[in-house]
Specification:
The chain is of the alpha+beta class. Helix content is 17%, strand content 35%. The strands form 7 sheets. Strands 12, 15, 16, 17, 18, 20, 21, 23, 25 and 26 form a 10-stranded mixed beta sheet that branches. Strands 2, 5, 6, 7, 10, 11 and 14 form a 7-stranded mixed beta sheet that branches. It has a 4-stranded mixed beta sheet with strand order 22-28-27-24, with no helix packed on it. A hairpin with a 2-residue loop joins strand 27 (344-352) and strand 28.
Length: 489
Amino acid sequence: MGEFKMVHPPLLLSGVWALILMTSLAGSSEDVGLLPKFVENVPNITVTVGRDALLPCTVEQLKGFKVAWVQVDTQTILTIHKQVITRNPRIALLHNDHRTWHLKIKNVREIDRGWYMCQVNTDPMRSRQGYVDVVVPPDIIDRESSGDLTIREGQDVTLTCRAKGHPPPTIIWRREDNLDIIPDHGNTARGESHTESISRDVGEGETTAASVDIAGTSRLGVDDSTRVIEGDTLVLKKVSRLQMGSYLCIASNGIPPSISKRAHLRVQFPPMTGVPQQLEGAYVGQDLTIECHTEAYPKSINYWTNANGDMIVSGKRYEPILEESYYKTHMKLRIRDVTAEDFGTFRCVAKNSLGETDGAIKVYEIDPPKSHFNGGLEEQDDAETTEATGEPPATLPTHKKESKKYHSFHHTKGVNDIMDQQHLGKSSSFEGSHYTGPTTPQGLSPQESLDVVEHDAGEATCPVALLVAVVLVVIVTNTAFYASPPTLV
């Protein structure tokens, strides 16, 4: 809906008021001592664009006189008495009891900024005027500000930011990750600390808003780095990958909300690799993990090659692992059950559109660790130790001690067999021969057999009960032997 303004030159405005006075001031000269008077001045007000403004005007002893509102800057009559003259639908008049005449401006715009006069048609005319200041929050001009940029490492870059608002906004720069900015010497840093309240509104284009707590740091130091830079232009010299990231242009003028625009800076560079451990020792059957670090932008293609130079794919024995973070990649290769073929040089390879690089890791063979307990080999080790030193091993596991009771005898039969034959009258077969009663091993005399039994019983660390049984067997055997010699059947 358009607006209609009644614009009058000063002479024409005076003529209009003269006509009003001629029609409304008859006999007013008789009431000179009782002329209208203003209770208070029309105040100066400040209103944010888009809100409503109210200008009060209170007149006493008005009687037959009339009140009018005029926009001074444009010489536009807005209201006369109870009538709204202008066709501007945003203008309204609030009056009560012929005393209050308030001017209301709805949905204030910047064109409403200026002086407003409340007049009474006395002769001479009496008036009061106040100023309406329309303030505007900052707004970033997207077409005049930098967006996302991609450059090669080592080049210079200039970021610009233009903003409008009333009063004119101040522009500062900071990194979104809150790291220091390394600027050109021409930039100046804010030394004082302050806080900017950034709205959640979304503006045109890429203009976004966020809540930003700006903590200013000291002025440019030895390393020329700071967190906050003031000005509508940010110059970065010989940009490195460390300066890659998002930069915020923040505009504020004390009228909320402040506004920010994000410009993302991408820095391209060829791949680089780093190997924490270039030599890795492993033994056959071991599980091994080797690792490598790479940096590249644009993002690189990363893979491993084996000792033969072939690309490694994920499988039963090999598991490549990638941990990516922006332009950095942590490469790992897990090798399960190392074989002799794995001894050699593995390479981590990184490629992008700007170049290629690799890192070498050499895997060499080492001896497997020795175990303290290796199944049934302790018996053999103990025997070898006894032969070499002439002394038995210092200690044996309990189960080994019990086992040696029964396995260290030189007899083909155990002691229990001998006892059974003597006392229970059992017959036994030994290598095709049948023995009855007390027997001796084949090829030994009774005395030699006794010596063997005594020798074996001494070696066997038997329990007390078994030892007593052996002694009884020996006594019985000697008595039987000398009483009647053994007879072969």
